[in-house]
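Notebook, bench 3.
Goal today: get a predicted structure for LacI family transcriptional regulator from Noviluteimonas caseinilytica so we can plan the truncation constructs. The sequence was checked against the plasmid map this morning, with no discrepancies at the termini. Length recorded as 324 residues. Pasting the sequence as submitted so the record is complete.
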Amino acid sequence: MATVSRALNGRENVASGVRARVIDAAKELRYVPHHAARSLSSRRTRTIGVVLPDLHGEFFSELMRGIDQVAREHDLYLLVSSYHGHPEEQGVALRAMRGRVDGLLVMSPFVESTPLADDFDDAHPVVLINTGLTGIGLGTLRVDNHGGARGMVQHLAARGFRRIAFVAGPEGNFDAAERLRGYREALAEFLPDADPIVLPGAFDESSGHRAGQAIIAMAERPDAVFCANDMTALGCLFAFHQAGLRVPDDIALAGFDDIPLARYVHPSLTTIAVDIAELGGLALRALIAGTPLDSAPIAPHLVVRESTQRDTPPAPHGERRDSS
């Protein structure tokens, strides 16, 4: 048994002929390792738990793609759970992971404090993704949502737009709150005479479509709309098309995240680009390495496409254009 174990686990102290016979026998018997038994003996499951607020949409698809790529590089498995945006279900999902994973990646977007730390134990290293929770002694990897939103408003103001509306994200969501804060702050700085125009949204197409319809019905319509994420912007774009509005000639439109679909709609969408897959990959690499995370947030960047390009002066220095 010990020889077979060494051969199957790639140990060097096995003669090449013996290793070949063991591998051939394993193939003939269609043997696969019993991971539960392995975890009992090694106290390692080679499994990473991933707990997300949702699994629907391109953002989470890209995030999981990045996590999965790094997991495959390290011969790790993933156990994925969603809590559908409910804080109490988040705790249930985390407790269900105990003893089944070697570490945890958790996205907890709640603005208000949650008893998150109570659901962890010292046996499981944890990396939090895009959370506003502080002071709980866990590594955190986050995007500079505030700075990204500021950059978008600055871009729209520089292109000559003066009435800039913002379609917000869900209430109580850290990312959404930071993007709204960046919008308000930049509007006060770059267009001090402009009043904020904020419409409710939920980071999805349907809320974007409702916001677009509300904008169309306004007596004094904004000349640009900045949506808290790209999915919201796509719903808004559909509402504008239905009403016969031309983007960007009648009204400009921008989003946040740079999901893959953003470049393939017509007109292609100006957005704040977050390398979503890389965010997931970085989080898992940090978890595997066990190294302290840099407290500085990841800086997204502006990608200018057709949806904000009217006959206006050349883009200021430093803006990145994307012709795709």
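Residues 248 and 307 are 5 Å apart (CA to CA). The two ends are 58 Å apart (CA to CA).
Flagging this for group meeting.
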